[in-house]
Amino acid sequence: MSEEMGSRSCFENDLYHSGVTASSVxxxxxSKILAENVGFLKSFSNDSAEIQAIAQAGAYYKVQDGQFYIxxxxxxxxxxxxxxxxxxxxxxxxxxxxxxHSGDFFGQFALVGDPRPADFSVVPVTDAIFFTxxxxxxxxxxxxxxxxxxxxxxxxxxxMDNHESQGWxxxxxxxxxxxxxxxxxxxxxxxxDAKPYERIPLEKMSQGTGYEMVxxxxxxxxxxxxxxxxADVVCLFVHDQVSADVLKALGPKPPLFTLRNAGFELxxxxxCDSSQVSVTRVPSxxxxxxxxxAVSLMxxxxxxxxxxxxxxxxxxxxxxxxxxxxxxxxxxxxxGTGKIGYYTVQILRGFGCNVIxxxxxxxxxxxEQGIQYxxxxxxxxxxTIISLHAPLLPSTKHMINAKSLxxxxxxxxxxxxxxxxxxxTSALVDGIISGKVGACGLDVVENEGAYFxxxxxxxxxxxxxxxxxxxxxxxxxxxxxxYLTKEALEEIATTTMxxxxxxxxxxxxxxxxxxxxxxxxxxx
Length: 524
Fold this sequence. Notes:
The chain is built from 19 helices and 22 strands. The chain is an alpha/beta fold. The strands form five sheets. Strands 18-17-16-19-20-21-22 form a seven-stranded parallel β-sheet, with helices on both faces. α12 links the parallel β16 (331-335) and β17 (354-358). It starts with 8 loop residues before the first helix and ends with a helix.
């Protein structure tokens, strides 16, 4: 491996911008990156003789943030280039055309053809390190490894077949190691856990895109990951898993994982980040729909609507046991004041409730309205009703537990339309039995994935907590349906298609995606 940049003929020919400087690369996993990302090398293992020969024959170059590595119209590309470390933006006609991340490469045609003028520019947005391989060095390697020659030929034929439909990326010969997508007309989108009511808006929003939409009933897990093989995009919902095992099952070129919901607790975010796997979500979809459902649960519990309807359906018009309370003047604690929490506060204010809130980040709109933020312990102690609207994060898991319930009023009403893991279900059941919790409205519950969205009316519910919650007459449990309105489904489909468009057509990856999920959010 050469570390004497000044001796490289590429600089004498002004192939690379003068801002490039030499760098030590002893710790960079070049063999792994080549084997997992470069198309004609994927049939070879990291430690194969072919991969090792290429890694040893190449050179490494470090480019500082903001300095041009390739200049459109000026640089002649006579080398194969792989981005090993850092992020760079790609420009055409002085406009941003996409981004490259570790494992992305360009200039593969330079290994077998004549140098070409660059019709794009490459500019690092962080300090970046490139691995490069000259044609002469590559041809020397090919003479020693006949199977490598065959792989190059197969890859070249495939590239020629797709060249005209690849847009600027084919012209620039930039390919992504992160599941480089087909053109829009051929992009394959596999939709897991797809219900009939979801397919209608998704089909509507995908019209004209040319995407191949594939719907499967199963949820994504290591056991069903094979159903996503060959997909450019995998579209998921609340019970689908993106674990390290799923990533492993999908091989070295995982697709975009785009969630049709806001929460991402079943996504192994650190594993995705370390593997440079892009994940997006729908951060907001008709938040008022969920707020309305939360308040509907409050009112149904307070006024015993379920029991009243059951009685009347049996011609029992008695009112014993159906006494509720006025919402006017009652203190309601709202935990989590994002968009859903905000709308919940507005509805409760309409009832004349005294609303108090808790959130790590105070909503400025609510502060302007004079809403009081308090610490959790005070909220627990003062609230007649507690409504949960926080995301499920390591810091919020089981925020409702035995200790927090001890701090609550006797007979407190608990409402959860966010995530089941916010509540320690065992402690909740104990609280209901003891009378500490007087009523509970749940649209979500721990371990719901094995039950929700399915008709199990002819089966025994084996989860002890869910079975007990269903049996309590002061509990209303709905099947994660708070979001389920026509408007919300349309918003989910619209944002999902925008996320896919950014990935397929704009070449965005990782944090550059508008609705990306990343470690920073996971650790919040």
